[in-house]
Amino acid sequence: MPNTAGDVEAAALLFLSLASPVRLRILGLLAREDLDVKTLGQRLGLSTANVSQHLVRLRHAGLVATHTRGTRKINSLCRSRLGDASRLIHDLGATVPPGAAVVV
User: Dihedrals φ, ψ of 70, to 5°?
Assistant: First the structure.
């Protein structure tokens, strides 16, 4: 259960990486198959530079891993990290006492 400042910061990093429609679309494509940045860009109608920037954020959050296949770098979805997101939501809710006001 996240209860330290570090736990909450880690959760915030994860959720910030999910707060982009482009990054969500990338994750959706990678849920179907592993792809290189060029193919991702073609399917999304975006430049490889733009997709690369989004992939950096997703890798930093642990949502995407990269491996080499021949001369290409292939991106794959880290499915276990998505399960972590679900657990974090549940655990963060557990840190708020029942009936407590939450200020946003």
Answer: 70, -120
The span from the CA of 80 to the CA of 43, in Å, is 25
Q: Residue 65 class from Cβ within 10 Å (0-12 exposed, 13-18 middle, 19+ buried)?
A: middle
Q: How far is CA 38 from CA 33, 41, 57, 79, in A?
A: 14, 5, 17, 22
Note down pLDDT in tens along the chain; length 104 residues: 445 667 778 778 888 998 999 999 999 999 999 999 999 999 999 999 999 999 999 999 999 999 999 999 999 999 887 777 777 777 766 665 565 555 55
Which residues are 76's β-sheet partners? 65
Its pTM stands at: 0.78
